[in-house]
Amino acid sequence: MRTILVYLWRFWMVILGTILTLVFFLPVYLLSIRQKDYKLCYFFIRLWAIGMFYGMGFRYRLINKTGKKIDKDQAYVIISNHTSIMDIMLPCILFPNHPLCYVGKKELVKIPIFGTVYKRVCVMVDRSSARSRADVYRRCAERMQQGQSIVIFPEGGVPDDTSVVLDDFKDGAFILATKHQFPLAVYTFQGLKEMFPFDNSKGYPGVVKVFFNDILTPDLPLKTLKEMSFEEIKLSLIEKIK
User: What is the pLDDT of residue 123?
Assistant: First the structure.
């Protein structure tokens, strides 16, 4: 019986996603044509993300482990762990004053309707192409100069082995931060691996714990940034907070 309810809940996501996409497609499509309109475009993207996250019965609790605050006038490279499609919604909810640009897979362009807008508002990367991977840094830097913050999941994907707490980090986010001197905002999303995994037969609505781990300055060596971020996120994933 529980499995049937989970499948119905997952089917509700398809219905909800279709409705929200149809509602917000036109303003997002029109406002994504010109980069100077992206801030207003992001307003509607954020509404879509809020609708998806809360509409699926999720809430979040923010735990600030650093004591620092996000500067609304500063662009950031934002990183977190990645275990669920809902990871994509959370940064939009957490950053109302920072138009976000995601670094995403080129394959998603093929999704009907969604793909049309996706290729405008995201920086796409073809992971099989060294040239495409190298060009990501230039395109991300251009977006950040326009006032956008960049969201990267440094694991580079979701590991097939669900026993992996946190997969090894790729260098991309840290190269971008150090090369172009943008601060690194480090977050951990705890709970979504169980609440909304990629296994469609599992999951449940609930409260996600969001740890704001740190803001790391880009003057630190790349290796140090990478190691510090990894350790902070891994510790937060195993931390027990009621």
Answer: 87
- With contact defined as beta carbons under 8 Å apart, do 11 and 87 qualify? no
Q: Which two tokens stand for residue 229?
A: 């971020």
Residues 229/65, Cβ–Cβ less than 8 Å: no
The string of pLDDT tens digits covering residues 145-172 is 888 999 999 998 787 777 889 999 999 8
Quick one: tokens of 33?
């044509």
For residue 65, the model assigns a pLDDT of 92
Q: What length is written for the chain?
A: 242
**What H or E segment, with its residue span, contains residue 149?**
strand 149-152
For 2-238, the fitting CATH number among 3.40.1130, 2.40.160, 3.30.1370, 3.40.50 is: 3.40.1130
Find how far residue 1's CA is from the centre of its chain. Answer: 33
> Quick check: 69 and 143 in contact, CB under 8 A?
no
C-alpha 148 chain-centroid distance: 14
More confident residue, 223 or 107: 223
For 12, the enclosing helix (H) or strand (E) is helix 2-31
Can you tell me the mean pLDDT for 62-88? 93
Q: What are the CA-CA distances from residue 206 to residues 40, 146, 166 (Å)?
A: 30, 36, 22
